[in-house]
Amino acid sequence: MKGKTILLVEDNPDDVMLTLRALKKNNISNDVLVAHDGAEALDILLSNGSEAQEAKTLPQLILLDLKLPKVDGLEVLKRLRSEQRTRLLPVVILTSSKEERDLVEGYRLGANSYVRKPVDFEQFVEAAKQLGLYWLLLNEPPPSELEA
Amino acid sequence: MVGATVVSDGDATGARSGERAFFAPVAGGVAATLGAMGIIGWIFGIDVLTSLIPGHVAMNPSTALCFILVGLGLAFWGSGSLARAWARFSSAVVVIIGLTRLGEYASWWDTGVDTWFLGQRVLAAGNAQVAPLTALGFVLVGLAFLRPTTHTSRPTLIAYQLLLVSSVLGALSALVGHLYRVPVMHGPMALSTALGFFILAIGGLGLTPDRGLTAVFVSPGMAAPLVRRVVPVVIGLSLIIGWLQVAGLRRGLFEPEVGASFFILTIIVALATILLTTARSFELADSQRLEAERALRRSEERYRLLFETIPLATWVYDRKTLAFMAVNRTAVSAYGYSRSEFLAMTMKGVLPEEDVPAVLYRMAHDDSGQLSVRTWRHQKKDGSLLDVEVTSHPLVLADRPATLVLVRDISEEKRSAEQLQRYAAELEAANAELDAFCYSVSHDLRAPLRSIDGFSQAILEDCGEQLDDEGQGHLERVRAAAQRMAQLIDDLLDLSRVSRVGMRRQSVDLSALAEDVLEKLRHNDPQRRVTTVVAPGLRVEGDSRLLRVMLENLFDNAWKYSRPKTEACIELGHAVVNGKRPYYVRDDGVGFEMAYVEKLFTPFQRLHSAVNFEGTGIGLATVQRIVNRHGGSIWAEGEVGRGATFFFTLRKEAEGKK
Question: Among partner residues A12, A17, A21, which is closest to B447 by beta-carbon distance?
Answer without folding.
Answer: A12
